[in-house]
């Protein structure tokens, strides 16, 4: 069982991840990691000394090649439980959810094999019990 919760704010020290729901020209932007056959919303772990907005901007550039974009924080989210078949989170972990409008891209080199730009949401999510809930919350809050 997995539990995803949403908060208006949390102590900055708790924020470990940034997830960025992204669009370009009105189309969704998803990433496919080299080691997986699934798609995900851009995002990743916060590095030491980074503020969470810097994490989001860095991850968006690294995972999509976004060069020019507008990024906006939406809310804090947390996850507790089994995230994938191989991962189990016993304690509540926190991240910040963002939305981004990507204006232009440049070449990028990372663990991401390719990006998918599409009119439709993907069916084969890397985190099917988490990422659709993040999109639902962003829509509920008026960001999508």
Beta strand count = 7
Distance between the termini: 27 Å
The helix-and-strand class reads alpha+beta
CATH topology category name: Nucleoside Triphosphate Pyrophosphohydrolase
- Known CATH architecture: Alpha-Beta Complex
Instruction: Let me know the CATH homologous superfamily.
Output: Nucleoside Triphosphate Pyrophosphohydrolase
Approximate helicity band: 10-25%
How would you spell out the order of helices and strands?
Answer: EEEEHEEEH
How many independent structural domains? 1
- Averaging pLDDT over every residue, what do you get? 92
So how many helices? 2
Instruction: State the low-pLDDT regions, or none.
Output: none
For the largest beta-sheet, the strand count, sense and barrel status come to:
7 strands, mixed
CATH class: Alpha Beta
Query: Radius of gyration from the CA trace?
Result: 14 Å
Which band does the percent of strand residues land in?
Answer: over 45%
Instruction: Identify the overall geometry.
Output: globular
Your description of this structure?
The protein has 144 residues and is an alpha+beta fold. It has one domain (2-140): Nucleoside Triphosphate Pyrophosphohydrolase (Alpha-Beta Complex), CATH 3.90.79.10. Helices cover 16% and strands 49% of the residues. It is built from 2 helices and 7 strands, in the order E-E-E-E-H-E-E-E-H. The protein has helices spanning 52-64, 131-140; strands at residues 2-7, 15-24, 27-33, 43-45, 66-84, 87-105, 112-118. Strands 1, 2, 3, 4, 5, 6 and 7 form a 7-stranded mixed β-sheet that branches. Strand 5 and strand 6 (87-105) form a beta hairpin. It is globular.
């Amino acid at each position: 069982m997995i539990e995803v919760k949403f908060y208006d704010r949390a102590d900055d020290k708790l924020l470990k991840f940034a997830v960025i729901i992204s669009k370009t020209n009105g189309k969704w932007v998803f990433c496919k990691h080299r080691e997986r056959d699934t798609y995900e919303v851009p995002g990743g772990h916060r590095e030491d000394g980074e503020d969470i907005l810097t994490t989001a901007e860095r991850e968006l550039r690294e995972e999509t090649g976004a060069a020019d974009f507008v990024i906006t924080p939406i809310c804090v989210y947390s996850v507790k439980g089994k995230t994938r078949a191989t991962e189990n989170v016993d304690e509540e972990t926190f991240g910040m959810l963002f939305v981004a409008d990507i204006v232009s891209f440049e070449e990028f080199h990372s663990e991401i094999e390719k990006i998918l730009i599409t009119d439709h949401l993907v069916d084969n999510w890397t985190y099917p019990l988490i990422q659709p809930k993040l999109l639902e919350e962003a829509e509920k809050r008026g960001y999508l």
